[in-house]
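Service request form, structural biology core

Requester: graduate student, group of Dr. S.
Request type: structure prediction, single chain
Budget code: on file
Notes: please return the result as structure tokens.

Sequence provided:
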Amino acid sequence: MKKHSALLTKKQALEVIDILDKTYPEAECELDFENLFQLLIAVVLSAQTTDKSVNKVTPELFKRYPDACSMSEAGQGNEADAIEEISQIIKRIGMYKTKAKNILGLSKILCNEYGGKVPDRYDELILLPGVGRKTANVVLSVGFGQQRIAVDTHVFRVSNRIGLANEKDVLKTEMALMEIIPEERWSATHHNLIFHGRYCCDARKPKCFECSIYELCKWEQKAEYGEN
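Core staff response, request fulfilled:
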């Protein structure tokens, strides 16, 4: 990603997040789940695929395995059979075999070490198979109400494009966002940036002509997309 020549000032950044708050008042996690375990599984499954795709496979998955212990007992205790059973349910999403192995593994850990409950600590979450920094932050934010900024592809693209950050990797982008955005607004801004990236600031065809933060945006190419 090309680095930008300018960053938003602190004042401008606050204006941007205020505008995004008003633009996306309903912004929230779009994954379907009924409990913390299902949230964790859905977020793990969402890696490199869309929430809509995940929502198409999780109803059957959660009907068959509604909690960690039932998931851990898939295949009647035979790991290969369990992975195959789970794979057949989620095979419409990317990397389904790897994800099947991961969600089986993390379910066993949750069942055996946490009484089937999802831990609310970052350092414990990231030790689970298939759970990285982004996944852990989403679970802590959405599931436990902690203020977090999870940097997915939308947050990374949008924040670096508009000038909230000017970084080449997701970790540095997260640190930059945490620095410029007030902590009490981290989670809300995370969802707003996702919605903006999903519904306006597209990777290939951004809708700059209808963008609510067009005047503040620092993207050097915005004029090319600024007219309908």
